[in-house]
Amino acid sequence: MSSKKNAKRRLLAAPLLAATLLLTGCAGAELAHLAYATMDTTLSTKLYPAGGRVKIPEELETATPMTYTREFWREDGSGKCVFAGVIVPWERTWVAEINHDGNTTALPPEPGVRAGYVALVNEKRCGSAVPQKIFLVGEQFTGRAILGMGFDGKPFVDKVHSVSSGDVLAMQAQNRPQWFAQSIERLTRLAPTNPAAKAFLAQSQDDLGKLLPAQYAGIQAAVR
Questions:
Q1: How many CA atoms lie within 13 A of 187 on its CB side?
Q2: 3 CB-side CA count, 13 A
Q3: What is the pLDDT of residues 9-36, one digit of tens each?
Q4: Fewer CB within 10 A of the end CB, N or C, for the chain?
């Protein structure tokens, strides 16, 4: 996403953010929530899983192919374009600081424990046009299969589990999600036996060489 588009989107959301400074109490809280929601949709690309409910493995060393759409009224919305990528688990291998009422609690790393899932999207397909290379990333929220959905408690995604994604190519290194490099390392390990992981790396290897130069040799070897 270009810096000009980002600047325009910030301009659209700025009045709401400024207004929150003038209000207190419930009105201020409600407007702050609206401002946050506006920023979420204007500064990111909202993606919705396509194709119905998809079960997602609980194991860390997995990569699940996934397609997404956008809102139908957009130029590249549902029925016009499809966004393709993978869902990958992540684990927290760093200290997390939680601030509450002025108190800070440091949570130690939890390697080997699945903390969540991320969506890595690297292709946009619109009708008969040549597929476009992109690189959107964001956290993928999931549901649990309970009543009427298999009863097994396994994670799944469907159209209600949207992803607020950002263009990782436009992010400065310090602003990239902490799980980004880890997720690419996981795909690199999986590539020899997981076709979805290998296809993703092959499609994005040039971009990954710029984003993660220390991992580039491993990525190249994985897609040979």
A1: 32
A2: 2
A3: 444 444 444 444 444 444 444 444 343 3
A4: C
CA nearest 142: which of 186, 98, 88, 193? 88
Which single residue is written with the structure tokens 């076709």? 195
Condensed to tens digits (0 to 9), the pLDDT of residues 38-52 reads 334 445 899 999 988
User: Which amino acid, one-letter code, is at 57?
Assistant: P
Cross-strand partners of 124 = 83, 132
**Alpha-carbon span 145 to 93, nearest angstrom:** 28
Name 105's bridge partners. Answer: 98
86/49 Cα distance (integer angstroms): 11
Residue 84 sits at φ, ψ, to 5 deg, of -120, 145
| Per-residue pLDDT at 210 exceeds 70 | yes
Q: What is the pTM of this model?
A: 0.79
Whether residue 149 contacts residue 53, with contact meaning beta carbons closer than 8 Å, is answered with yes
Tokens of 120: 């890595």
pLDDT digits (tens, 9 = 90+) for 164-200: 999 999 999 999 999 999 999 999 999 999 999 999 9
The backbone torsions φ and ψ at residue 135, rounded to the nearest 5 degrees and listed phi first, read: -155, 85
